[in-house]
Design brief:
CATH superfamily: Gcn5-related N-acetyltransferase (GNAT)
Strand content: 25-35%
Oligomer: single chain
CATH architecture: 3-Layer(aba) Sandwich
Bound molecules: coenzyme A
Helix content: 25-40%
Radius of gyration: 18 Å
CATH topology: Aminopeptidase
Structural class: alpha+beta
Shape: globular
Strand order of the largest sheet: 1-2-3-4-5-7-6
CATH class: Alpha Beta
Length: 171
């Protein structure tokens, strides 16, 4: 079962996996629509959190997170190698992202989802908002997920809830 044999890790521009990671993004997301990753995009790469999924050291999954003000993250470049799509790897990567973000008190993740992938994001807890719009020549939707409830339940001290709970139990 590929999903269970995937290891997700944060990689950097100097990591040995980075060239293969970049190639998978281009092969899955750009070449099919006749585009390449631009020099301007590459120049921004150092500001992102790059996540690669590996099966036996081979990169089979990619995404990047863009930190934003207000405890938000933008998710970009979600791609699964065609030979292992529809086997749960994309969903496993979404769970990895959730854990990564929750541990850093990120409250909100959003993305521009291709219409063809809206069901995938919805199954992973994202809600669509607004009308469909065109980007790189294909229809997209804004999708987002709030992590606030999880953080409040798991880290009540951070949110001040523990004090309230203690206070309530004394009365
Ligand atoms: C969309 C994508 C990231 C999903 O990852 P995945 O590992 O294939 O998906 P999962 O196996 O976790 O499937 C979860 C759900 O996603 C949807 N899904 C599965 N394969 C899909 C595919 N090839 N394309 C679109 N959606 C797909 C299904 O709704 C599936 O639910 P189901 O198993 O109940 O039918 C992946 O198929 C992919 O890289 N597609 C091409 C690139 C792309 O569209 N990226 C997103 C850009 S916004």
């Amino acid at each position: 079962m590929p999903e269970g044999s995937v290891i997700f890790k944060i990689i950097h521009l100097s990591s040995p996996e980075y060239p293969e990671y970049l190639e998978l993004r281009e092969a899955v997301l750009r070449r099919p629509i006749g585009l390449r990753i631009t020099e301007e995009e590459l120049a921004m790469e150092e500001h992102y959190v790059h996540i690669a999924g590996l099966i036996d050291s081979r990169v089979c999954a990619t995404t990047a997170l863009v930190p934003e003000e207000g405890n938000k993250m933008r998710m970009i470049q979600v791609a699964i190698s065609p030979d292992v799509q529809s086997k749960g790897i994309g969903s496993a990567m979404m769970r990895f992202i959730d854990e990564y973000c929750k541990l850093r008190s990120v409250e909100y993740i959003w993305c521009h989802a291709r219409e063809s992938a809206v069901a995938f994001y919805a199954k992973n807890g994202y809600s669509a908002e607004g009308e469909s719009f065109e980007k790189v020549g294909i229809p997209h939707r804004l999708m987002h997920k709030s992590l606030v409830v999880y953080i409040m339940l798991r880290y009540p001290y951070i949110c001040g809830l523990k004090l309230k709970t203690l206070h309530n139990t004394r009365h």
